[in-house]
Write a structure and sequence with these properties.
Domain ABC transporter: 9-234
Subcellular location: Cell membrane
Keywords: Antibiotic resistance, ATP-binding, Nucleotide-binding, Transport
Bound molecules: adenosine-5'-triphosphate
Protein name: ABC transporter ATP-binding protein
Structural class: alpha/beta
Pfam family, one: ABC_tran
Distance between the termini: 47 Å
CATH topology of the largest domain: Rossmann fold
């Protein structure tokens, strides 16, 4: 019987190397069931390597990984029917037509989602007869996502799901991921897009150089401390208004003996969080 009480993913002290290069350096994190969890980090942070280890494509060189309570390498046959995987690229034969590929994958599953519904939902109708190699990058991504979810998995791993997509395709993809979560599917995605993590994820794990540097909901991570005052107004301020505000705050602070360390207009974002923690920009 599957263990339904175990977290969706448990990673404890994971170490992964390529030769001398340490790609994942003692990473520990947990993914709760039914959540959308984003693993956020810059290029080369170790996101894909971590995902590939969870998917059973790589064996941990140190530490322990459990997915739905199972060892992804030793219990791969048991795990595979319960997870969906969207790779960063590829995953289909170059000459196969998009819809044909999806129907083929659907047939591998006991109770697949209706292919027509997925084709329609992901806007793949126009390119259903197009060979895979002629699809645009965004279309290949959407087909990859459809292939990952067609088997009604409990847990889906998606690597950079919207990389290279136009804004409309990104929105469609986000909506589909949110619908899956509503249906109880757990989603683990990697991204280096801050807005994607902020808009979509219930939980964000920020990793850098193979190590976890912060975890929390987007609200928790961007909240700041009680020493941070955030003023939200209902319209854009003209430059003169922010000058006047600055002057008033400065007068008030002087009168109350408060030392204002910084005033910023606009909110703290995950980019600020990353910069604060690492001293580097995420999307450089
Ligand atoms: N097959 C490989 N051989 C050697 N080094 C590798 C290999 N795959 C990844 N690396 C290195 O391991 C580190 C982590 O790579 P990984 O792809 O896991 O990071 P990532 O966070 O997914 O990056 P990206 O956003 O660019 O995909 C990087 O320094 C990368 O260059």
């Amino acid at each position: 019987m599957p263990d339904t009480s175990a977290p969706a993913v448990e990673i404890a002290g994971l170490v992964m190397r390529y030769g001398d290069k340490v790609a994942v350096d003692g990473l520990s994190l947990t993914v709760e069931r039914g959540s959308i969890t984003a693993v956020l980090g810059p290029n080369g942070a170790g996101k894909t390597t971590t995902l590939e280890t969870c998917e059973g494509f790589r064996k941990p060189q140190g530490g322990r990984v459990r997915v739905l309570g199972l060892d992804p390498v030793a219990q791969r046959r048991e795990l595979l029917p319960r997870i969906g995987v969207m790779l960063q690229s590829g995953g289909a034969w170059s000459g196969v037509r998009a819809e044909e590929m999806l129907r083929h994958v659907a047939k591998l599953h006991a109770d697949p989602l209706p292919v027509d519904m997925l084709v329609e939902r992901l806007g793949l109708g126009d390119c259903g007869k197009t060979p895979y190699r002629r699809l645009s990058g965004g279309q290949q991504q959407r087909l990859g996502l459809a292939m990952a979810v067609v088997g009604r998995p409990e847990l889906v791993f998606v690597d950079e799901p919207t990389a290279g997509m136009d804004p409309a395709a990104r929105r469609t993809t986000w909506e589909l991921l949110q619908e899956l979560r509503t249906d109880g599917v757990t989603i683990v995605l990697t991204t280096h897009y801050l807005d994607e993590a902020e808009r979509l994820a219930d939980m964000v794990h920020i990793i850098d150089r193979g190590t976890l540097i912060a975890s929390g909901s987007p609200e928790e991570l961007t909240r700041g401390s009680s020493a941070t005052v955030r003023l939200v107004v209902d319209r854009e301020l003209e430059p003169s208004a922010s000058d006047a505000l600055r002057a008033s705050i400065s007068d008030w602070s002087a009168a109350h003996g408060v030392d204002v360390q910084s005033i910023s207009f606009g909110s703290r974002t995950l980019e600020d969080v990353f910069l604060h923690l690492t001293g580097r920009e995420l999307e450089s």
